[in-house]
Amino acid sequence: MTADTLARADTGPQKAQGPTPRPASNPAPMKHDDVHAVYLAGPMTGIPAFNYPAFMNAAAALEGVGYAVFNPATHTGLDTRGLTGNEAADHPSLRGLDRRVAFLAYTQFILAEADAVAVLPGWETSKGARAEVALALAAGLLIIDAMTGERTEVDLRAAEPQTPRCASQRPVALVPAITAARRSESGEVRITSATGGQKGQKEAAFDLIPAGVLRELAVLFGRGNLKYPPGPDGTPNWKAGYPWSLTKAALDRHINTFWSREEDYDAEMGVKHVVNAIWHLIVLAWFMENRPEFDDRPRAETYVGALPTPQWLLDKAAADAAQPLIQDTSRGPA
To answer: How far is CA 310 from CA 151, 304, 322, 323, 324, in A?
Structure first.
């Protein structure tokens, strides 16, 4: 039994001594009209007083805008003042708590009464909180930010702490868990780290493009600029435009050379044939919006092909089918 689960254990519903007032400097969370009952989830283990002050403040703020809040911190019967959050299961302050009873109470509220689960900063570092969020998602409940009340999009895979499996992986401690939140109409996603820091992330994820391939592509652009000198104003030569069919033909040559195992690298430019193909595709994409006058793709064509089966052939097939089968017995039984 871990300190995390013990700290969340339930000895029966208890009334809080009164929620801690939310600091005036923090704005009240927003209220969703379709949400009435909220379960509060967050980290406890490893945080002084098992993070109860944060639970109490968040619960008070959520209740202040009209939510009915299930706060695990008021259902443990614990006085966590002076605790470090790392106490062992046999610590005097943690004895006598039944985690099964606690989890049953938490689960029952989430499934039977809650309209949403509100998550505190750092929830993704807690196994218990992640399990509660997973249960809420499976039940179709909303996940909201306990501090702002805003709807949060959760990727549990991103929230799951990773265990290093090889020396090439970065240490987990250097990669704070994050959760994607609040996608705006512009495509921006607000990212909240385990420490509570937030940063907007745009939809264009340049960081997902393999750096090595991108660098090799950049080398090809640079060498091409040396092979075909730019214009007087410095504009790359290829931007002047040329028939699209020329770059499509070159694209085919690079792909076929690679696919036929003739060679992997283009001897002239010293860059992979497949990267040359990427270059031509990028050029075609740019031509589509900037050089439409060179569009020489074939227009829609019609091809009739063979005419319907001639009647004489149909008649012959029918006559052949009507003939009795004559077995040749001159060579004995078949």
So the answer is: 69, 16, 19, 21, 24
pTM of the model: 0.42
Q: How many domains does the chain have?
A: 2
Q: Residues 262-271: pLDDT tens digits?
A: 999 999 999 9
> Does residue 304 fall inside a structural domain?
no
332 assigned to some structural domain? no
- Residue 100 within any structural domain of the chain: yes
Work out the end-to-end distance of the chain between its first and last CA atoms, rounded to an integer number of angstroms.
Answer: 82
Q: Are residues 193 and 148 in the same domain?
A: yes
